[in-house]
Amino acid sequence: MPAAEPLQRAGSHSVLSDLQFKPHLVKTILQEHKDGQKRTRHLGRRTIGRGLQIFLWGLRIYVFAMLLIVLINVFR
User: Fold this and answer.
1) CA-based diameter of the chain, in Å?
2) I want to staple 52 with a disulfide (CB 3.0 to 4.6 A). Which of 30, 48, 72, 76 is the partner?
3) 62: buried, middle or exposed (CB in 10 Å: 19+, 13-18, 0-12)?
4) Which residues 6+ apart lie within 8 Å of 15 measured at CB?
5) pLDDT band at residue 62 using 50, 70 and 90 as cut-offs
6) Are 2 and 28 within 8 A, CB to CB?
7) Within 10 A of 25 (CB to CB), how many other CB atoms are there?
8) Rounded to whole angstroms, how far apart are CA atoms 8 and 14?
9) How much is the pLDDT for 15?
10) What is the C-alpha separation between 32 and 26, in angstroms, rounded?
11) Distance (Å, rounded) from C-alpha 29 to C-alpha 41?
12) For the whole model, what pTM was predicted?
């Protein structure tokens, strides 16, 4: 697969006018995007174990408790 050329020139041409004259560049970029989507489409959420779930809930409870402690100390 050819390397993508820089899109922006140091001149008065905009990116869109450059792309009008380089359809191969547009096709290359779109093909890379399609290939990336094909590779990641089948990925879903990963299941986590029971121990990790307990640990994460413990962290949530800890953060909530610390938030309450800070708020109580601020308003005293």
Assistant:
1) 69
2) 48
3) exposed
4) 7, 8
5) very high
6) yes
7) 16
8) 7
9) 63
10) 10
11) 18
12) 0.44
